[in-house]
Design a protein that fits this description.
Length: about 200
């Protein structure tokens, strides 16, 4: 179930989007089609350095784009194109689809695990991903919107400050596959910023 914070933010942000309306029905009931955009993830302070120090290399897979930042310590940034989806206000729900992923490689053993083609699921408050480009999909992050903000400018929705907390399932899979104990449930992996066109 979504937290009260998530519902409040979604109502404020999506109300503006859905007010654009979709021909043939009331704005509050009609889903808004997601036409494109981009989500950028930045690792939390200390995460990138800890991973690299322990021989774990995160690589962003195509068509995602990777960058580095040293403004507040070493951080990895990953940008993923939004490819579609649909969201609704009443009832609150829907999904935002992405392409690209993150491949975690243990440089000491060359074992690897990739999660990608992320979906932001408003119904569950989670971000899910496909594992190793297969059909299996797991909840990778729980979304923390306690410090998030949403602005609407015409058909563009900007969501910033979304916390990404690693789920128990994702932490377990990463540890088991990579042969490490670095990943823990609830670990603040980073924050996300989405710019979505509807």
């Amino acid at each position: 179930m979504l937290s009260k914070t998530l519902r409040r933010l979604a109502v404020v942000g999506m109300a503006g989007v859905l007010a654009i309306g979709i021909a043939g029905g009331p704005a509050s009931a009609a889903p808004a089609t997601v036409r494109g955009g981009r989500t950028t993830v930045t690792t939390a302070p200390g995460i990138a350095a800890t991973l690299l120090r322990n021989g774990i290399l995160p690589i962003v897979t195509s068509p995602g784009r990777e960058g580095l930042s040293i403004r507040n310590g070493l951080a990895v940034t990953a940008g993923f194109p939004v490819t579609g989806g649909a969201v609704s206000l009443d009832p609150l729900g829907g999904q935002v689809l992405h392409r690209g992923g993150i491949k975690f490689i243990n440089l000491r053993t060359f074992k690897a695990l990739e999660v990608g083609d992320f979906i932001i699921d408003l119904s569950t408050g989670q971000l899910t991903g496909r594992v190793n480009r297969g059909t299996a999909r797991v909840a990778v992050f729980d979304l923390d919107l306690s410090k998030a903000s949403i602005t609407v400018d015409g058909s563009t929705v900007k969501i910033t400050g979304v916390g990404l907390n690693l789920t128990a399932a994702a932490a377990g899979a990463l540890n088991a596959t990579l042969g490490t104990t670095l990943f823990t449930a609830g670990l603040r992996f980073g924050t996300a910023r989405s710019v979505v066109e509807v």
